[in-house]
C-alpha cells in the first residue's frame, strides 16, 4: 500500500472514531461510514495505525517548555495540548473539551495565556511555553498556587491547572493595564488593589469549573492581587449551639 | 483531524499563490480553523501558516485614521491606546467576544473570516447547504433559536458570529485584500454577503485572496460609540443579538447616526433606513421606538427566535440612548 492510501485508511478510521465520540449526529453519520468500510479495509486501517505509528507525515518540532528545549517528532496535526500530555508527559494541563470552550488546557506562551487545545504544537516553535508544572520554584509553590490552596479554589481539581495559569496571566494583564469588557472607563483600567470581584469573574470567564468552586477561585485571585478575600472557612453552627 | 502538511509562509505572495492550489487553507490564530478541522468541517491537505508574516501592526493613516494589519491579535487591537480612546466601541466589541485566551491568539483577519456557529453546520451528521450545497437546511425548520431574522434565504438561516465585525461595520471600515492577481480595497460592509442561493460563500473573497488589513477612517463621533451585546450568560457566549451604535448630537438633534446589528443575519447588518430616519431628530422615546421599528422592518423570525425581534429593538433603543449621552459601558 502506498503512503497516501495508508493515510486515507487511517483518516477514515479516525473520522469514524471522531464521529462516534462526539455527541449529536453520531447515529446518523456512523452507519453511512460503516457501509463504506469493508471489514478488510478496517483491518488494514488498524494495521496502518499500529505499524510503528507509521512515520508518515511526522516532522521534527522543537519546543521550549518550562525553560527546557525539547526536540520532538510529531505530525503537524498534533495540538500543543496533546504534545504536552502525550509526548512530553506533562499531564498537568487538562483536556476538558478540546474545543476552546472550557479553559482546562490553559498554558502561558511568552507570558500570555492561551488554550493549548486550539493551537498546533508546530505553530509554537520558538515560543516560551509555561505549563502548571513550570510555575513552582522547586518545592516553593507559586504564590497563586498557594492562594488557591488557602482559599479553597477547587474541589475535584480538574480545572485547577488551567484556572491557576489563567490567574497568573490575569494578574499580569492588570499590571499592564489591559481592559476587560466591563471595565467602566477604558482610559482608566483597574489596579490590582481595587479590581472588583465582578471584573475578576469577567476576566476569568474563559475557565469553567464543573464543581463550581468559583467563590474560592475569586478569593484566590483577590489574595494574589494583595486584597483581603472573605474567609474561606464556613461558620458551622451545631444544633447544640442553636438550641 | 485529518493529516496535512504544514508550511510557514515566507511572504504574502507565497501564501496567496499556495492558496490557489487544491485543498489548501491558511491558518492564522487557528482558534476557528482548528476547531472546524477537529470535527471534519475542513479537511485541508496543505496548511499554510501566515501567522508569522509581518502585517501585524497598527499604524496611523495620513487621513487621521488607523490601519490595522490582518495579523494583529484581537487583544492587541482591543488594548491599543488609540483604539480605546478614539474607537472605544471596537475595544468593547472585541473584549465581549470569546475569552482572553482566545483573543490573545485570534487575529483580526481570522475573526472577520470565522465561520457560522449554526449547530447544523457544525454537525456533519446533518445536511447543511453551507457545508454541502444542495443538501438542505435543517436549521430552517429545526432548533433555530440562534439563527437569522434578517436577510436569510430558504437555503440558509445562519448568522455571522463575530462581535468585532459589528463594530467594524458601524465604523465604515475598509478592507484591504491581496490575491495572486493584485490588491484591492472594498468597504467592510461589502465583504460579507447574504446567503441567497450560494450559502457556501460567506464573503466576496475570490480563491487565493487574503485579507491584509482593515482601515478605520477618522471619525470623531466614534468616541461616543457603544457596543451592546445580549447573550444567554453574561460572559464567554456568542451574541443572541448585539448592537453597535454611534450617534453624534449637535444642538440637541442627531447630526449623524450609525447603527449595525449582530446575531441577526448572515453578515454584520447595517440598519441604514433607521440611520436615515434618526438624522435631525431629537433623542426621545418616540424617536428611538420608530428607529428600532425601522431597523427590524422585514424581519422574518423562525419558529424559535421570534424573541430576537423585540430584543433587538430594545437593544437598539438602549445603545442609541447611551451613545447620545456620550457613550461608555452599555
Ligand atoms: C469557545 C469559543 C467562543 C467564542 N466566542 C466568540 C464570541 O463571543 N464572539 C466572537 O466574535 N468570536 C468568538 N469566537 C470566535 C473567535 O473570535 C475566532 O475563533 C477567532 O477570531 C478566529 O481568529 P483566528 O486568527 O484564530 O482564525 P483562524 O482560525 O486562523 O482562521 C479563521 C478562518 O479565516 C481564514 N483566515 C485567517 N486569516 C486570514 C487572512 N488574513 N486572509 C484570509 N483568510 C484568513 C482561515 O483560513 C480560516 O478559514 C469564539 C471561539 C471559541 C472557540
Ligand atoms: S480543553 Fe482546551 S479549552 Fe477545553
Ligand atoms: S474543581 Fe472540579 S472542575 Fe473545577
Order of helices and strands of chain B: EHEHEEEHHHHHHHEEEEEEEHHH
| Strand segment count of chain B | 12
SSE-based structural type of chain A: alpha+beta
CATH class of the domain at 221-324 in chain B: Alpha Beta
Work out the largest interface and the residue count of each chain: A-B, 56 and 46 residues
What strand line-up does the widest sheet of chain A have?
A: 2-1-5-3-4
The unreliable regions of chain B are none
> How many distinct beta strands of chain A?
5
The strand line-up of the biggest sheet of chain B is: 4-5-8-6-7
Which ligands does the model contain, each kind named once?
A: flavin-adenine dinucleotide, FE2/S2 (inorganic) cluster
Q: Determine the mean pLDDT of chain B.
A: 98
CATH superfamily of the domain at 221-324 in chain B: CO dehydrogenase flavoprotein, C-terminal domain
Largest sheet of chain B: 5 strands, antiparallel
Q: What would the keywords be for this entry?
A:
A: 243 residues; alpha+beta; 5-stranded mixed β-sheet; 9 helices; 10% strand; B: Uridine Diphospho-n-acetylenolpyruvylglucosamine Reductase, domain 2; Enolase-like, domain 1; 28% helix; globular; binds flavin-adenine dinucleotide; binds FE2/S2 (inorganic) cluster
Amino acid at each position: 500500500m502506498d503512503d497516501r492510501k495508508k493515510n486515507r485508511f487511517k483518516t477514515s478510521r479516525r473520522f469514524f472514531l471522531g464521529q462516534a465520540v462526539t455527541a449529536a449526529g453520531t447515529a446518523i453519520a456512523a452507519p453511512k461510514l460503516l457501509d463504506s468500510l469493508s471489514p478488510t479495509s478496517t483491518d488494514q486501517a488498524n494495521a496502518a495505525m499500529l505499524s510503528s505509528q507509521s512515520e508518515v507525515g511526522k516532522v521534527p518540532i522543537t519546543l521550549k517548555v518550562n525553560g527546557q528545549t525539547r526536540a520532538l517528532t510529531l505530525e503537524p496535526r498534533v495540538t500543543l495540548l496533546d504534545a504536552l500530555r502525550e509526548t512530553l508527559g506533562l499531564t498537568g494541563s487538562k483536556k476538558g473539551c478540546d474545543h476552546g470552550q472550557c479553559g482546562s488546557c490553559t498554558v502561558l506562551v511568552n507570558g500570555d495565556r492561551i488554550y493549548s487545545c486550539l493551537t498546533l504544537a508546530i505553530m509554537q516553535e520558538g515560543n516560551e511555553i509555561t505549563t502548571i508544572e513550570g510555575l513552582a520554584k522547586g518545592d516553593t509553590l507559586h504564590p497563586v498556587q498557594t492562594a488557591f490552596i488557602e482559599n479553597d479554589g477547587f474541589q475535584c481539581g480538574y480545572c485547577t491547572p488551567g484556572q491557576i495559569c489563567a490567574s497568573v496571566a490575569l494578574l499580569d494583564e492588570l499590571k499592564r493595564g489591559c481592559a476587560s469588557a466591563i471595565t467602566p472607563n477604558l482610559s482608566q483600567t483597574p489596579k490590582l488593589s481595587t479590581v472588583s470581584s465582578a471584573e475578576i469573574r469577567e476576566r476569568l470567564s474563559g475557565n469553567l469549573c464543573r464543581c463550581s468552586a468559583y467563590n474560592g477561585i475569586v478569593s484566590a485571585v483577590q489574595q494574589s492581587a494583595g486584597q483581603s478575600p472573605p474567609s474561606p472557612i464556613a461558620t458551622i453552627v451545631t444544633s447544640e449551639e442553636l438550641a | 483531524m485529518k493529516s496535512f502538511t504544514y508550511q510557514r509562509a515566507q511572504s504574502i505572495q507565497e501564501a496567496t499563490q499556495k492558496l490557489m492550489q487544491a485543498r489548501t487553507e491558511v491558518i492564522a490564530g487557528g482558534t476557528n480553523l482548528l476547531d472546524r478541522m477537529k470535527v471534519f468541517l475542513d479537511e485541508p491537505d496543505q496548511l499554510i501558516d501566515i501567522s508569522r508574516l509581518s502585517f501585524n501592526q497598527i499604524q496611523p493613516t495620513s487621513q487621521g485614521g488607523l490601519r490595522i494589519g490582518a495579523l494583529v491579535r484581537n487583544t492587541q487591537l482591543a488594548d491599543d491606546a488609540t483604539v480605546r480612546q478614539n474607537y472605544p466601541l471596537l475595544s468593547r466589541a472585541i473584549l465581549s467576544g470569546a475569552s482572553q485566551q482566545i483573543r490573545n491568539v485570534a487575529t483580526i483577519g481570522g475573526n472577520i473570516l470565522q465561520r457560522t456557529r449554526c449547530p447544523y453546520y457544525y454537525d456533519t451528521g446533518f445536511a447543511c447547504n453551507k457545508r454541502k450545497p444542495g443538501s438542505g437546511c435543517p436549521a430552517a425548520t429545526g432548533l433555530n433559536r440562534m439563527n437569522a431574522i434578517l436577510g436569510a434565504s430558504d437555503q440558509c438561516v445562519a448568522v455571522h458570529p463575530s462581535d468585532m465585525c459589528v463594530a467594524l461595520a458601524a465604523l465604515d471600515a475598509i478592507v484591504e485584500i491581496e490575491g495572486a492577481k493584485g490588491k484591492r480595497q472594498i468597504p467592510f460592509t461589502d465583504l460579507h454577503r447574504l446567503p441567497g442561493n450560494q450559502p457556501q460563500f460567506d464573503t466576496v473573497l475570490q480563491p487565493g485572496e487574503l485579507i491584509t488589513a482593515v482601515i478605520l477612517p477618522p471619525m470623531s463621533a466614534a468616541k461616543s460609540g457603544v457596543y451592546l451585546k445580549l447573550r444567554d450568560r453574561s460572559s464567554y457566549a456568542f451574541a443572541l443579538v448585539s448592537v453597535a451604535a454611534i450617534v453624534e448630537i449637535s444642538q440637541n438633534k442627531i447630526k449623524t447616526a450609525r447603527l449595525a446589528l449582530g446575531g441577526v443575519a448572515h453578515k454584520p447588518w447595517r440598519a441604514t433606513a433607521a440611520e436615515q430616519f434618526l438624522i435631525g431628530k431629537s433623542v426621545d422615546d418616540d424617536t428611538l421606538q420608530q428607529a428600532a421599528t425601522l431597523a427590524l422592518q422585514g424581519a422574518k423570525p423562525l419558529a424559535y427566535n421570534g424573541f430576537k425581534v423585540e430584543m433587538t429593538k430594545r437593544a437598539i433603543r438602549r445603545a442609541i440612548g447611551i451613545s447620545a449621552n456620550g457613550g461608555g459601558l452599555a
